[in-house]
Protein: Response regulator
Organism: Vibrio gelatinilyticus
Amino acid sequence: MEKLNVICVDDQREVLSAVLQDLETLEEWLNIEDCESADEVLELMDELDAQGEYVAVIVSDHVMPGMTGVELLTEVSKDSRFKVTKKVLLTGQATHHDTITAINTAGVRRYFEKPWKGSELTECVRSLVTEYIFDMGFDYQPIHQYLDQTVVLDRLR
């Protein structure tokens, strides 16, 4: 099976730790990476790509120093290596305009306001990784039991 990664980014360590704790159940079949800045994410993505690994999902905070989550996800969406990568935005401070930009420009698939429900975030990431696997044409059979079965059935129809 291809090496699939989920990258989580937030400049506040306690928030990042909460996201990682919520996604802990997915570590049995996914690599969960954490970063504290957009620049760190971009560097990690370059490294993973160079190693032949895949970035299935990015879960990003919006308000961060340097580059916002929307700016990060927009930049990622313009990189042909990551055109299929799914994007999730977490924030407590995004404006209506930010949210629209995130959806229209960055291709954000889900938006969660802080505080979020851990189970909803986990199921969202599971569904998006399942979509990613099908979009990339990967063999899903070795990890079939971990995938979102609703997405699997929809994709097999």
Summary: The CA atoms of residues 56 and 85 lie 5 Å apart. The chain is about 45% helix and 20% strand. The two ends are 23 Å apart (CA to CA). The mean pLDDT is 93.
